[in-house]
Amino acid sequence: MLLLRFILLLALLSAANFGAAFPQDGMKKGCSLFKYHFLEPHEMKAMQKMKDHFGNMPQSDRRCSTRPFHRKWSSAELSVPDRMMLVKAELDLITDMVGLLDDPSFTETHQRPLAFLSQAQEDLRVCMATETPSHQPSKKLRHWLQKLQIAKKTETTGCPEASAILHVFQVLSDLRCAALREQCT
């Protein structure tokens, strides 16, 4: 009987220590980008379908003089906080542009990708708020962010629209890279 009480006491103490080691509030508020490390095949197919459908739509003025997604460096070269800022800017642009598309034939094709990208955008915001709330971008990233802002202000709507859709897989690759805590390739 004494042995049974001792085992119960030991089990209770172990459970209490285990619970203290993993606080529930920390788990709810933590960063959850790991799910973007490996994207589901159906999400990738939906993105490809959206990209293909966009490519077949009648073209308005999609020419860009600034090429907003062109960079001489990859996201793997950035620190983790910089990667998160990069992906946030890319996701902000792409969700805005996909949301603006008003072609009725495109509505069905872009709903799933838009929902996925919006969820990634929200998850990234939570991570940035908890892990890097006051991070200042590196010189390399700051220059690219300025270039992106200039493109959004000076280009016709067709340019950032086309750039965002046509570079969706680059954005997904950057998201995958941001999900990793170590260096990515």
UniProtKB/TrEMBL annotation:
<dbReference type="GO" id="GO:0050778">
    <property type="term" value="P:positive regulation of immune response"/>
</dbReference>
<keyword id="KW-0051">Antiviral defense</keyword>
<dbReference type="GO" id="GO:0005125">
    <property type="term" value="F:cytokine activity"/>
</dbReference>
<dbReference type="Pfam" id="PF15177">
    <property type="entry name" value="IL28A"/>
</dbReference>
<dbReference type="GO" id="GO:0005615">
    <property type="term" value="C:extracellular space"/>
</dbReference>
<dbReference type="GO" id="GO:0045087">
    <property type="term" value="P:innate immune response"/>
</dbReference>
<dbReference type="InterPro" id="IPR029177">
    <property type="entry name" value="INF_lambda"/>
</dbReference>
<protein>
    <submittedName>
        <fullName>IFNL3 protein</fullName>
    </submittedName>
</protein>
<comment type="similarity">
    <text>Belongs to the lambda interferon family.</text>
</comment>
<dbReference type="GO" id="GO:0051607">
    <property type="term" value="P:defense response to virus"/>
</dbReference>
<dbReference type="InterPro" id="IPR038326">
    <property type="entry name" value="IFN-lambda_sf"/>
</dbReference>
<dbReference type="GO" id="GO:0007259">
    <property type="term" value="P:cell surface receptor signaling pathway via JAK-STAT"/>
</dbReference>
<feature type="signal peptide">
    <location>
        <begin position="1"/>
        <end position="21"/>
    </location>
</feature>
<keyword id="KW-0964">Secreted</keyword>
<keyword id="KW-0732">Signal</keyword>
<keyword id="KW-0202">Cytokine</keyword>
